[in-house]
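anyone seen this seq b4? input:
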Amino acid sequence: MNKKSLNNVWVSGKKVLVRVDYNVPMDKEGNITDDTRIRATIPTLEFLLSKNAAVIIASHLGRPKGKVAPEFSLKPAAQRLSQLLFGREVLFANDSVGPEANKMAAALQPGQLLMLENLRFNPKEEKNDPEFAKHLAGLAEILVNDAFGVSHRAHASVHGITKYIPAVSGFLMDKELMHLGQAVSDPVRPFVAIIGGAKVSDKIGVIENLLNKVDTLIIGGGMANTFLAAQGYQTGKSLVEEDKLPLAKELMVAAKEKGVALLLPEDVVVADKFAADAEFKAVPVAQIPAEWMALDIGPATVKNYAAALQGAKTVVWNGPMGVFEFDAFAAGTEAVAQAVAASGAQSIVGGGDSVAALEKLKLAGKISHISTGGGASLEFLEGKELPGVAALADK
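predicted toks r here
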């Protein structure tokens, strides 16, 4: 990536707007339940503070749909950031563009931190409104984009703003682009990709693009049912995208033509209903009962997939192998997490459930890179240009 990074600009004494992705999960009481995304930005913020920059932090949270919604306030994120910075004060503006934000940003001194309220409380953020982008730009002299997770969106704070002030990548953004970029453009082989999740339609572009790059492609989750149905198996009441059966057949033919090993389940864990307390059992894919549904990969498939990961040099994993939120159907995802961690490969993992499995099993430390960008990492793996990355200043 021939883009300028934080290391390529002078920030000392300057006002710097840092776009972060603090779209973190919270409980009903407003407590943050996972602060991974906040912790991931600490290196960038500490670097800026060490250079005596005045730092203004901007983010979105949830989907308030352009209206002020107290449950989506970033105040808990400001409090958590202060704790992570060992009690350093994080000032807070109750708007992102308006009198209070303008006044506080103007008064901000070098070495101080200010967090703006949720950008998406203003409908102009998601519309990439030029006026809103210009107002945001007016708060600072430089934009540091450390929000890879929203850089696939042409929103005002990651795209429009770059027309008014120079934009460079932060350290988290650099890390994402380096790891994902190498996997896509210059992987060390053998290269194994594991794609899971409910629907083929969500990941068509990823699968098509990866078929041109990988040595082995492993399919799991609900999308595997569509491939099994395309092979002629009876899948009972399993989730199957009937309109994607021809596509699944085309992808299997393409894999064969390109010499890519496309691995599908040979057995599955089926349930009599979609529920945590369902009756369940493992059966070969040729023996799925008519009234049951496949909700996880089976033990023989787990062994196959783990064996395919042995000796891999690059592994990309996105998406669960089953209904991970139900304990009875989490075994496949957890086994794949263990196999990826044990592979010793350059490993890149994205997607909420995949990451959750690693955290649950305390294996995150054995993964080369955990991506903070769900949709963004998928679009990157599809080979799409991300608007927020394209808008960064060239070297």
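The radius of gyration is 23 Å. The CA atoms of residues 248 and 303 lie 24 Å apart. kinda curious what u guys think
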